[in-house]
User: What shape does this take?
Amino acid sequence: MSAAALKHALKESVSGLPPAFWWLWMNTLVNRLGNFVATFMAIYLTLDRGYSASYAGLVVALDGLGSVVSSLGAGVMADRLGRRPTLLIAQLSTALSTALLGFVEGPVAIAAVAFLVGMSSNASRPAVQAMIADIVRPEDRVRAFSLNYWAINLGFAISAVAAGLVAEHSYLAGFLGEAALTLACAVLVYVKLPESRPKHGDDGEAGADKRTEPAVRLGTVLRDGRYMGVVGLSFLIALLFMQGTVSLPVTMGLSGWSPSDYGVVIAANGVLIVLLQIPVTRFIEHRDPRRLLVTSALLGGYGFGLTAFAGSIGVYALTVCVWTLAEIVNAPTQMGLVTRLSPVHGRGRYQGVYSLSWSLAALVAPLMAGYVIDHFGTAWLWGSCAALGTVAALGYWLLMRGLPPERGQAPEQSSEPAEPVVAMAAGKTKKAADPVRTTV
Assistant: This one.
């Protein structure tokens, strides 16, 4: 491909998205650049503080438990208080708790603050995802979620290297550095990001009586059968992708490979996401999401399943490439489906429940993998992954039959946020009386 063609492809990939999205994208990137705690928590507790591996595992689990708790609470906050206040509260509390973690002494205090860090750091996810859905046109959402996912992985790839260098000199500097970057994100939100939460009546029914609009509560989400089916399938997919950092290093270690060998193999995941996320998204953007999700589930399941036959670094890297491709396809497509099934004035709660599936998977995956490996062996674990991918693929195929149409329609000008539309009884569409407001 020529330089001109590459330039044109890049321009098409990033054009047409509102300015608020790019500030949100920058917020995501900067936030991920300071990902020190998640990367080095266990090493910090065992090597620097001298605690046992079991205590380090407990603290990491408490961090994950905090994210489970905040998934639902932050979703409710995003709907009630707004996306912008929720982001501000989440990032300010993350900055404070992260800085505090570098100073606290004693096992109980460290565990308690780690729980607060997990709770506050995950609280921004439902608000970010809901805000993307608010401000981006329906036809551009898959691309927007893909770009945001790309920023997450790009920031993590850079931070992993930088944080390693910082940790060699001072773990405290790492905690304070992450706190400073998170605080910078909070300032960015306050200065540049407008509120995007739609008001009741903005979901497409022009002149709708607000008193007759059904309220969206957590119970509403939990009773939404199709949506909860998507959440359940998301949990299965998350269990699969967690194995790349949970079970793959254990399997390679049991086979005699060194930690540096694992580092080389897993690096393929980050490199491929950074290189392929945008071009692959351009290829899949307007294709059938049902087929994409089925294909990604099968690629993920059998990509991990192939690990049972790996006997060299090259084959291990090949398996990583297979399930990374599944990850690249699944992430933006599934986020687009989640938004598609979420009512406009309940996006925060719906996104919170969706985030819960990943938080729960982060807790369950290590326990499940450890039990299977200890009692049955690694071959059974990787075979189970293939079966899990097959079940998820079948679930997507059945669940997405008769999928309802997109809840919104693109406005004429791409630089403005999406104006919702609703299908009327006669089969026509009518623009809502009040578009989604994006001014403070």
Observations:
- The chain has two domains: 19-197, 217-405.
- The chain has 17 helices and three strands.
- Residues 68 and 359 are 5 Å apart (CA to CA).
- Residues 19-197 form a domain with the Growth Hormone; Chain: A; fold (CATH 1.20.1250.20).
